[in-house]
Amino acid sequence: FRLSFFVNDINGLKELPDGLLNQKIANIAEHHKKGWSNHAGVMKMDADPSISAKINHGYVAGGDYLTFKASADIQNYKNYFVPSISLGVGLTISSHGYFKREFTLAWEPNFFFSRDPQGKLQTFRNDFLTLTAGHGSIKDKDPRKESHLLAHFSFSYLIYRQGEYFDKHAMRLGAGRLSLFNGKTHVEPVIYFNDLFRRVTPGLRWIQSF
Q1: In terms of domains, do 53 and 139 share one?
Q2: Could you give the CA distance from residue 179 to residue 146 in angstroms, rounded to a whole number?
Q3: Residue 2, domain member (yes or no)
Q4: Nearest CA to 71 among 201, 170, 188, 202?
Q5: Residue 3 lies in a domain
Q6: Which distant-in-sequence residues (6+ apart) come within 8 Å of 1 by Cβ?
């Protein structure tokens, strides 16, 4: 918190009752998480309307910001373990102070490996464009801290195809994530499909962020 105290006349300080400031500070400490009311765009504490702030609860938790996202991933698809990387841009919306919403758009090349009839190793790259959305509470009034997301979804569409590993116009849907190691590692259940959930294949992604 930052507390501001204003007087119109410096001579008025001597007229203040003893302990008034201490009482106001005690009111803030006790009631700042309770009721606030909007008075012409200014939030005032119900327990003591002389205490006001720009937003509810009297503090601003973070704000809206963009971040660069990068991760190294591995997923199982049918009988393959497929490594991939993910590079994208994330938007966090948290200016309201209670919850944050996270959106990420990322390019995700997946790599398959096989040998040709001559035994030469071949690499097949298949690229997905992935949109991720999450919603959760702000931890310790800092939206940049990793926190538990109450809802998390991802949708991916195949934009570049090599080989016969994926069907044309393949899609992937993920719902929910297990967060490990202070949010640097995530485990996400997914399904691959095409043509409105035809030829569905379940999978699991391990996501290691940097």
Answers
A1: no
A2: 9
A3: no
A4: 188
A5: no
A6: 28, 32, 58, 59
**What gap in Å lies between CA 6 and CA 186, rounded to an integer?**
49
Residues 51, 148 share a domain: no
Confidence label for 197 from pLDDT (cuts 50, 70 and 90): confident
- Amino acid in position 31: H
What pLDDT score was predicted for residue 87?
Answer: 96
Contact by Cβ (8 Å): 89, 102: no
pLDDT at 148 over 80: no
pLDDT for residue 77: 94
Closest CA to 77 of 178, 181, 163, 159: 163
How far apart (Å, rounded) are the C-alpha atoms in residues 57 and 43? Answer: 8
Phi, psi of 133 (to 5 degrees): -135, 135
Q: Name the residue range of residue 18's domain.
A: 10-58
Residue 154 near residue 171 (C-beta atoms within 8 A): no
- Tell me: do 190 and 104 sit in the same domain: yes
174: left (phi over 0), alpha (psi -120 to 50) or beta: beta
Strands (E), 23-181: 36-39, 42-45, 48-53, 65-77, 80-93, 99-115, 121-137, 149-160, 171-175, 178-180
How many domains does the chain contain in total?
2
